[in-house]
Amino acid sequence: MDSVNCPYCSHTVSADSVMLWDNRFYCSECVTSISPALFRLATSGSPLEETVYPEDISALRYVTLMTIPMGLCGAVVALPVGWMCLIGKFDFWPSLIVLACLGGFASISILVQAIVGVTVQRSRLPRKVLIEDGYLRIVSPQDEQSSELQACKWRFGNTDGDTLCLFSGLRNGVLIQTPKTVIACGHSSESLEHWRAFLTLARLTEFPTLGCMRVLVVGLVTIGGGFVGAGLGYVVSTLTGRPSWQFGLAFLGAADGLAIGIILATWNIDGVQSARSRLHPAPAALIFFGLGLNIGKADGWTSALICASANGLLGGLIGWLCHVRLRVESKQNSAEVDHLDRNESRYE
Ligand SMILES: [Zn+2]
Question: Would you say residue 348 lies in a domain?
């Protein structure tokens, strides 16, 4: 082996170097400066792994997590109703009964989600995540996935991408996106430090935090779609002399916008390969066709078919664009991995 460069600082590593789980050599100073705990783990020859066991998750955590959003939704519904009761527009007791029924229904549905969810998640546990010989491996009773580490991306923050965390209670952790899935690590403070330090040292590509941005994107695209639809509805209603198109197309525009917003917001959230199997032109065309049919049928079946076909074409086009974009991303990912492999082989 000739001179080897530390993946973190790019300097030539001295004899005093440490090999981490990606089989690359790092300067001891680099590793200790990022995390003395990681240095101890690496030099003790221990593996970098984390296992979530069935007893680590609970339905109660899911219920606790849902309490705040549920409370907010309840307030959004109850406050206007309370106001209407105060000014005498609604009767108090019937309103209270309707609100109580809604609250009861929502609580039961959360409980059912928690119980079904925890049962499904437990059947997939224990889940072991480890880094070995430059590969990230996820081992569960049903299957074993292995991805080249350099084809993965990561970030530190909200763990929404991994549904297991809704039951394990990990809200902020290390989120790793493989080409096949997204998983979160760092269920203990010790493990969190190890994973975060290692991924920082390995200079793995970070993927952006979306969080609130996602909700904003969905909202903006829905409103934008509504405006475009309203404009189009005005033209169609003027041309046909049927005012129903004005409202109908505004509604259709908003519905299309909502669908596009959801596609954009969840784009690539579960890895390029999953997104490619999820986003196909045909289902998109079918969903948009159905939306168009529902709106257009108010004006007879001929109009319904024209409206559905036009909207279906739009859906198909969006699905096709997504598919093309994902194919390019997938090719770029494999090109980046090849490039890194070539660079590494130069030092061997
Ligand atoms: Zn270094």
Answer: no
Asked whether residue 65 falls in the same domain as residue 161, the answer is: no
Q: How far is the CA of 152 from the centre of ligand 1 (A)?
A: 22
Give the distance (Å) from ligand 1 centre to CA of residue 18.
10
Both 305 and 237 in one domain: the answer is: yes
Overall pTM > 0.85: no
Q: Are residues 155 and 269 in the same domain?
A: no
Any bridge partners for residue 48, and if so which?
131
Cα(27) to ligand 1 centroid in Å equals 4
CA distance 145 to 142: 10
- Token pair listed for 261: 């917003």
| Residue 238 structural domain | 212-342
pLDDT digits (tens, 9 = 90+) for 30-57: 999 999 999 999 999 899 999 999 999 9
**At what angle are helices 189-201 and 36-43 packed, to 10 degrees?**
90
pLDDT in tens, 268-315: 666 666 677 777 888 889 999 998 988 888 778 888 899 999 999 999
100, 64: one domain: yes
How many angstroms separate the alpha carbon of residue 333 from the centre of ligand 1? 25
